[in-house]
């Protein structure tokens, strides 16, 4: 997950070096704390709800730099924003479907015995995560191509 944040942040904030460094430092720090927590949490057999809550909080941290990026580029009137900002919501929509299935145990909770081996909530979560990473990868390539053809023309803020 950390590499996804860092790649997106690096390309999106390429023209805003100071903000890029701040956000990258924040994400790396949060991920470091999460790894330490998971190492100690597994040893202490902490509950699954804490793990899921931590995962959701880390995932939602992408909205802060996303909305800041939106504001730095002048909002919806900017073509760059119009092209890439909606893709962030598609990413979170895909992840949301997987997280919803995982947290609610859909479909096996409502159809006991039918989804024990195929299409269980945990598998849906993994498929959604894979789909989100593929989506993010493709958009990262598009963002990189955009940056290569439209280099930064404004001074760094």
From TrEMBL:
It comes from the Eukaryota. It holds the Pfam family HlyIII. Keywords: Membrane, Metal-binding, Transmembrane, Transmembrane helix, Zinc. One of its GO terms (molecular function) is signaling receptor activity. It is a multi-pass membrane protein. Belongs to the ADIPOR family. GO terms for cellular component: membrane. This is Uncharacterized protein. It comes from Adineta steineri. InterPro entries: AdipoR/HlyIII-related. Zn(2+) binds at residues 122, 126. The lineage of its organism: Eukaryota, Metazoa, Spiralia, Gnathifera, Rotifera. The chain crosses the membrane at residues 21-40, 52-72, 84-103, 115-137. It is found in: Membrane.
């Amino acid at each position: 997950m950390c590499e996804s944040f860092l790649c997106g942040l690096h390309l999106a904030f390429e023209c805003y070096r100071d903000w890029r460094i701040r956000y990258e430092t924040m994400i790396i720090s949060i991920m470091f704390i999460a790894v330490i927590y998971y190492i100690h949490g597994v040893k202490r057999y902490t509950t699954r709800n804490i793990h899921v809550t931590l995962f959701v909080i880390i995932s939602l941290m992408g909205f802060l730099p996303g909305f800041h990026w939106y504001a730095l580029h002048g909002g919806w009137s900017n073509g760059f924003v119009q092209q890439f900002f909606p893709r962030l919501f598609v990413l979170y929509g895909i992840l949301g479907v997987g997280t919803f299935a995982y947290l609610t145990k859909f479909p096996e909770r409502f159809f006991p015995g039918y989804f024990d081996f195929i299409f269980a909530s945990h598998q849906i979560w993994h498929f959604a995560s894979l789909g989100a990473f593929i989506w993010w990868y493709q958009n990262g390539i598009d963002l990189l191509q955009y940056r290569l053809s439209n280099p930064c023309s404004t001074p760094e803020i």
